[in-house]
């Protein structure tokens, strides 16, 4: 005891002087509205401060990165003893995905050596790039809120919180959530990309050498952190560091927002109250029209009702029958005469081409002057029409930049007219095959491929139902005026509830793009779309149709030909000669190999659309070794065997089969039993 006392006595003033001389720095943004913001925050990339006081790091455009850092660096450690200081931060964030459940990539609270990061978007979250990831001289500490699972960085899932030190391979990570207070270790999951405001607390204790991360959907901080990592941050921080946020998007995109932020070195960050922060504008309510209607006087209502009745009666008399289910249909209903006028009375001059179900005309609507494509479908049975209409009702609500938008429809007597966005450059096959006037370069082709893949991912995962397109091929990909690829012709699409099993249907599609299991199972699945995507990738890269009957010297089945060249180590032999060898070899290799993997005979060997998109976006490496795409041996006799198995199973079954020939000329029925 007597020995210790003097020691303690000398320590006390030391402790006091240490704590009193420790620098503190504070940041407090309860919303981002103060007039001094521009001097305090440096915004780069897509980051901007909105008029409503919300810091928006990215919008939902692809491949963006946005940064917001305090303009001046803060002293993060003691230069003489090299120890990092404690710090604490709390902020409110919201991630709004482009499509429900389909967004990316994520947001990170970031402490970095520079506020001008030379980083990449996508899985790099705007904080690191491919050359400096994992380098100990990066001096980068971040807490990531990641909504995409990247295998390259060993992500645990697509909704996690992770502590990143000089790498995106998180040192520690856990599914996003919080522990409910007072009930032991009961965890409540939190969906990061729900669009809801999430409050985050991050603390570093320099004595305990502990980083805690806590999240919550309310202003009250749960007492247990979701993530607690024992780590001394001193070696990873320089004396002066910049602090702020980074977010990025890839093929999958979300808007990333920070609604308020507070930060403090050597102390507890000032608390934020969710109710006093700016809030994201809610999407407009759907029933406003109805509310307005109710407030209108009843006299007007009766008159309106009467005139509607008269109108409907006149319509019925005109044999332009409106049925209940037609009135509920989403997209706009067009007037027959308007469409007739728009297309010059469906004149041959306005004819754009023949689709699977009928003729397509170019039209110009009088009032809006917009150009449209009008498809005239002829239908036979009432049942078929009803089915078709109910599909239009759902498909009309699909919205994606890589899908041809259905604007509306019209039905009159034997005619069913569908009105679509007009695609100035027509269908892709014209640019690929035969003798195209304009040869698409590789960059344009790759852009089209990525677009179609992202449109398909939306159909499979991004909509309230699973949509299987069933007829993915170059002639169903249309190009807008900027040569962006848009998937069209939903005439064969099937919708299923998520989690349900697709039922058996007629086998339809186009020979050469039809997955071999289809005739056997009769079930169109997302995996059979992936098969068709594989054939599509190969045709775009090779400039050749999947089945070419009049190539004498070569293998007639494209997949078999590519596989053959691949096994001979001469894969680049298959590349479209019209590209004049002007392409990036790694990109070409990716597309060709992915084409082979997707069009594997065995559905289990194919990736799903999300994986395919990930490969295309460079987020995951393709497997080194490819499985043979044919189940049976013997390359070369491939097509015969395929066709035989196709034909025999066709005749074995009692349902009817039909397909379009590969030039897209009409749907030929092989057999109807
Ligand atoms: C840094 O550490 C040295 C040695 O431990 C100490 O004397 C000094 O007061 C510390 N400075 C700060 C700012 O904490
Ligand atoms: C902005 O910077 C000034 C001067 O550096 C500081 O006084 C002020 O508190 C800062 N504002 C915020 C919101 O952090
Ligand atoms: C904020 O900006 C105003 C005007 O630009 C200036 O007068 C004031 O000193 C600034 N305040 C701080 C804390 O920097
Ligand atoms: C999204 O942000 C980018 C970069 O700031 C900008 O170029 C683009 O116009 C924005 N898109 C939308 C739809 O606001
Ligand atoms: C990667 O980041 C480092 C450090 O910020 C930078 O020096 C380098 O130029 C970047 N590399 C690329 C390819 O952007
Ligand atoms: C890490 O980065 C430093 C500085 O940027 C560089 O000199 C060094 O070669 C890099 N180390 C590795 C392993 O890439
Ligand atoms: C990421 O971590 C895993 C396991 O911790 C390791 O196998 C892998 O090599 C790491 N990858 C990178 C890029 O650091
Ligand atoms: C919470 O998330 C985990 C991991 O994603 C999952 O295994 C678990 O079933 C989820 N729990 C609830 C109640 O949804
Ligand atoms: C971090 O969390 C642990 C519990 O896991 C707690 O004991 C500790 O006090 C927390 N530290 C800070 C700085 O909040």
Automatic annotation (TrEMBL):
The protein's superkingdom reads: Eukaryota
Q: What is its EC number?
A: 2.7.11.1
Annotated localization: Cell membrane
**Segments traversing the membrane:** 289-313
Name of the featured protein? non-specific serine/threonine protein kinase
Q: What class of enzyme is it?
A: transferase
Q: Which UniProt keywords apply?
A: ATP-binding, Cell membrane, Glycoprotein, Kinase, Lectin, Membrane, Nucleotide-binding, Receptor, Serine/threonine-protein kinase, Signal, Transferase, Transmembrane, Transmembrane helix
Q: Which family does it belong to?
A: In the N-terminal section; belongs to the leguminous lectin family.
Q: Which Gene3D superfamilies match?
A: 2.60.120.200, Phosphorylase Kinase, domain 1, Transferase(Phosphotransferase) domain 1
Record's Gene Ontology CC terms?
plasma membrane
Write one Gene Ontology MF term: carbohydrate binding
SMART domains given in the database record: S_TKc (SM00220)
Per the UniProt record, the source organism is: Gossypium hirsutum (Upland cotton)
Residues where ATP binds: 375
């Amino acid at each position: 005891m007597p020995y210790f006392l003097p020691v303690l006595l000398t320590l006390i003033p030391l402790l006091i002087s240490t704590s009193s001389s420790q620098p503190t720095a504070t940041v407090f943004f309860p919303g981002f509205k103060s007039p001094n913001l521009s001097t305090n925050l440096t915004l780069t990339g897509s980051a901007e401060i909105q008029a409503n006081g919300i810091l928006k790091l990215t919008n939902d455009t692809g491949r963006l990165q946005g940064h917001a850092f305090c303009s001046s660096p803060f002293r993060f450690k003691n230069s003489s003893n090299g120890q990092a200081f404690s710090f604490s931060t709390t902020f409110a964030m919201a991630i709004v995905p482009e499509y429900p459940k389909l967004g990316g990539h994520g947001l990170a609270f970031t402490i970095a050596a520079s506020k001008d990061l030379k980083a990449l978007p996508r899985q790099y979250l705007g904080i690191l790039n491919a050359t400096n990831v994992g380098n100990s001289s990066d001096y980068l500490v971040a807490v990531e809120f990641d909504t995409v699972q990247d295998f390259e960085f060993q992500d645990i899932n697509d909704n996690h919180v992770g502590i990143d030190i000089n790498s995106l391979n998180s040192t520690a990570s856990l599914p996003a959530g919080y522990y409910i207070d007072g009930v032991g270790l009961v965890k409540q999951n939190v969906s990061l990309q729900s669009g809801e405001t999430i409050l985050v607390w991050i603390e570093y204790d320099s004595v305990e050498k502990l980083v805690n991360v806590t999240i919550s959907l309310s202003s009250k901080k749960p007492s247990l952190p979701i993530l607690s990592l024992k780590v001394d941050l001193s070696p990873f921080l320089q004396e002066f560091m910049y602090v702020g946020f980074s977010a990025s998007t890839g093929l999958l995109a979300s808007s990333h927002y920070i609604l308020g932020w507070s930060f403090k070195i050597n102390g507890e960050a000032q608390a934020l109250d969710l109710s006093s922060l700016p809030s994201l504008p809610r999407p407009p309510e759907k029933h406003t029209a109805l509310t307005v209607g109710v407030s209108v006087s009843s006299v007007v209502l009766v008159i309106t009702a009467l005139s509607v009745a008269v109108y409907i009666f006149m319509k019925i008399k005109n044999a332009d029958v409106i049925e209940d289910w037609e009135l509920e249909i989403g997209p706009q209903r067009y007037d027959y005469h308007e469409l007739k006028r728009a297309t010059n009375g469906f004149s041959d001059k306005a004819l754009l081409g023949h689709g699977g179900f009928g003729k397509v005309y170019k039209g110009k609507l009088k009032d809006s002057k917009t150009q449209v494509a009008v498809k005239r479908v002829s239908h036979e049975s009432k049942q078929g029409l009803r089915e078709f209409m109910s599909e239009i009702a759902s498909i009309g609500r699909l919205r994606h930049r890589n899908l041809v938008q259905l604007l509306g429809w019209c039905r009159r007597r034997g005619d069913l007219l569908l009105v679509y966005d007009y695609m100035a450059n027509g269908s892709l096959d014209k640019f690929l095959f035969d003798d195209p006037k304009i040869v698409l370069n590789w960059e344009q082709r790759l852009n089209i491929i990525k677009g179609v893949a992202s449109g398909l991912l939306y159909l499979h995962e991004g909509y309230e139902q699973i949509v299987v397109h069933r007829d993915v091929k170059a002639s169903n990909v249309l190009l807008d005026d900027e040569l962006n690829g848009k998937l069209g012709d939903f005439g064969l699409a099937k919708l299923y509830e998520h989690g349900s099993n697709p039922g058996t249907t007629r086998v339809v599609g186009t020979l050469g793009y039809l997955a071999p299991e289809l005739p056997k199972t009769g079930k169109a699945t997302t995996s059979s779309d992936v098969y068709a995507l594989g054939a599509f990738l190969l045709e775009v890269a090779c400039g050749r149709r999947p089945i070419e009957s009049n190539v004498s010297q070569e293998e007639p089945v494209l997949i078999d030909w590519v596989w053959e060249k691949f096994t001979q180590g001469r894969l680049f032999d298959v590349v479209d000669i019209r590209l004049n060898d002007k392409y990036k070899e790694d990109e070409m290799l990716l597309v060709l190999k992915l084409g082979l993997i997707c069009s594997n005979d065995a559905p289990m060997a194919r990736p799903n659309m999300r994986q395919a998109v990930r490969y295309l976006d460079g987020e995951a490496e393709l497997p080194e070794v490819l499985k043979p795409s044919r189940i049976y041996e013997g390359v070369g006799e491939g097509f015969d065997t395929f066709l035989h198995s196709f034909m025999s199973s066709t005749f074995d079954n009692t349902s009817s089969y039909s397909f379009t020939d590969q030039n897209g000329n009409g749907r030929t029925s092989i057999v109807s039993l």
